[in-house]
Amino acid sequence: MTARSTGLLVLGLGNPLCGDDGIGVAAVAELARRYQAPAGTVLLDGGTLGLSLLPFLEDAEDAILVDAVRGDTPPGTLVRLAGAEVRPAVEARLSVHQVGVADLVGAADLLGRLPRRLVLLGLVPATLELGLGLSPVAAAALPELVAAVAAQARGMGHRFTERPADAVDLARGPGGALAPLL
Q: Which pLDDT band, with edges at 50, 70 and 90, does 177 fall under?
């Protein structure tokens, strides 16, 4: 087995053109804005790229996938799945791009290259309809999801450092919009 050069991959998944399906991408952008990632960490906007993300997943010791996750709980509910729970979830519970993520995780597993620890964190979406922006429910739950990703990383031994408030404010673009960081 070859050595892996990425300690932690935080992979934001989803389509920002489909409402809350973009929650994974939004969460990783907000994580990058609010926290300094530890050395050896890759924060990646994976969008809906599916199998083209395989080299990134294969190269990671640990991985946190961040995405919208369908469930029976109310919209905005935080969902955490780990280890053997992840593959069935990406095959059945992710949103409109689930086939690409299922293929990604399945291919890494088939090749024996899954990260040693794999976690899926997400929110139950309120809407997956065509349209830009998160629903009010998802937007309100976004800080909780970002904090959960940072806490999960810390639990895996990858400590994110919170940026000072004035540094966070500088990361905002004109009109308070998030500046592109990834």
A: very low
Mean pLDDT of 46-51: 87
- Counting every residue written for the chain, the total comes to 182
Q: Which residues contact 68 (CB under 8 A, 6 or more apart)?
A: 14, 20, 21, 22, 23, 24, 94, 95, 122, 123, 124, 125, 128, 138
**Max Cα–Cα distance, the chain, nearest Å:** 49
- What phi and psi, each to the nearest 5 degrees, are found at residue 132? -85, 145
What is the C-alpha radius of gyration for the chain, rounded to an integer number of angstroms?
Answer: 15
> Contact, 76 vs 125, CB < 8 A?
no
For residue 85, count other CB atoms closer than 10 A to its CB.
13
